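Work through this protein:
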Amino acid sequence: MTAELVRGQNHPLPDTRLEIRVSAGHPVLAGASLGDEQGRVPGAEWIAHPGVPSLHGVEVPGQAAADHRLTIDLEAVPGAVHRVSVLLALPGPRDGGAARFGAVAAPFVTVSGLDGAEIASYTITGLDTESAVVALELYRRQGAWKVRAMGQGYEGGLAALLGDQGLERPADLAASILATVAPVATPPRRVPDTERVRHAAPVTTPDPAAAQAVQTSPAAATGTTAPTPASGTATPTSATDTTPPTVTGAATSAPATGTAGAVPSAGTHTGGPIDYAHPRRRAAAAPAPEPRQEPPVPVAGDASGWSMDERLYNQVWGMFEDLARTAAAYRSACDFAESRLDRELDQTLSDYRSRVGGANDAARAAARARHDELVERAQAVLDRDLAQLAAESEVVEPALPAAFARWDNPVWHAYRVPPGEPMAVRLGDLHLPERADLRIPMLVRLPLERGLWVDSGRGRSEAAGLLDETELRRLALDSAVAHTARLLAAHPAGQFAVHVVDAAGAGAAALAPLVDQGVLAAPPARGAAGVSAVLEQLTERVDLLQMALRGGAHDALPPGLDTARQLLLVHDFPHGFDDRAVTRLRYLADEGPSVGVHLLMVADREDAAAYGPLLDPLWRSLLRLTPVPDDHLADPWVGHAWAYEPPMLPPGSGVLRQVLGQVVAARQAKRL
């Protein structure tokens, strides 16, 4: 069975030796890059392109052309490689070339085994001004390889694509790659008489098992040849139709490069039946169906990494990515089904011949049946992927270390202050509406690159709308205290200091665990004078550290300067802040993270509306969190709005004070 993928959808690879065929309808450059689990490519030597066509089990064509064949042996790639990305780029507008993919036919990509059996195909639609695209991604997941339809285009061309993969000096590298190819003009396609009369009478061949039906495709409108499904698969009858993202029967594709295997025209055929069999493929009996592959059994820590914590972090990131892609594929398939149904219904209504004899009703029923079948198949794929992710979550969640674990994880009862800083901390959970009970840990790397903002306003959250203002503000401060305790618990003894600003003293009850356990660097600052003193102290610290860092004079710092990272928790902003204090707060938000001074604000943006746009840069520089569930975290690549859930302490649990007690005991032991 051939899986026709849509953007974001993945499919297992039954074989590791593959052939990837590209039909673009226009000369393109084809290449491949080898990256790690995050898709980062270490250097130019990990890219196969026409100048270096053979690399670590990957072979790509040596010239730009409208049709390509790439061969990949996944067993031959280095063990550090977890992703092989197939890249396509337009050589440029010179010599009649195209400047953007939107001006040419949509590229069509097919993944096959070396025996010619097709595994998956993908039509790269939706491109416009882009001149480079990541077509496919072959990636390693739980010890097995999968293919994912990417279709990620770049308006900045090959340079922008290479830069996104982490390569240095991408513009120079892209120029050197493009310089190795010369655009090749695509000859106009001659339509053979056999194709012109295809709908008039069937064509018989001496070997039905090896014959291929000649069909029109969207690429035919541009005067080019593209691989098309075999007979028995629904084929568009106009250049505006699109192949549906469904699973179809096995298909083979006639090559369009050169003259070998091309469909003969009427002027060259000398009589007798035409054999449409692939010239380099032996006719063979239909292979026996392969045994159904059971999904791999999830194992905690099966991702790459030097330590178990790193492997678990990479595995959680992989789960987040898989959930995003499978949900995107499902939504794309449903959108396609709806648009195709609307188009078919419109065509039925516009055809006056179908209005008599019940043909109109039959056509509409058939269109709805095709729509329902496509949605059902998409739902089945989604259910399969979500079930696998849920099984993996059940294995991974209990194995997470304290920094990655929920507050109700038993690992906190055996908590001890770590000797070193972990890779990340958990600041909550994320989920999508397709499976609300499947939650992915929201892990944020350490040290923090930006400050945090716990929004005590109502925002757009339905849950916040059910609470009164006082309760919402209380929950916001409780959430901030839980974040603070987690950050303290994630750092070695004495390596993280906390300052608190509570100008009106309204947060005394919620701040009690921090005050009573003695983890604060000083009592919470009260009033305008206290706010000014704390901000002045931290601002001077940032200035000193930045001067020492820029001048390379670390030994010139004052001897009594605390080298620990600093966190400033600001409650009930902007009460107690004058214009000078606001300016210092903005400075800390912008410059503090680079020298280990971080900001955690509890505020309602409406309370600071009097400042107007002056504070807009401040809000944008902070990572917004909420004390109640809210779907505000955007994923621009796949268009999701992730629902965020704050970390909740179990009711009546004393784990927070227990953890803070361990932090204080370790700090005192270090001082002795």
Notes: The chain is about 30% helix and 20% strand.
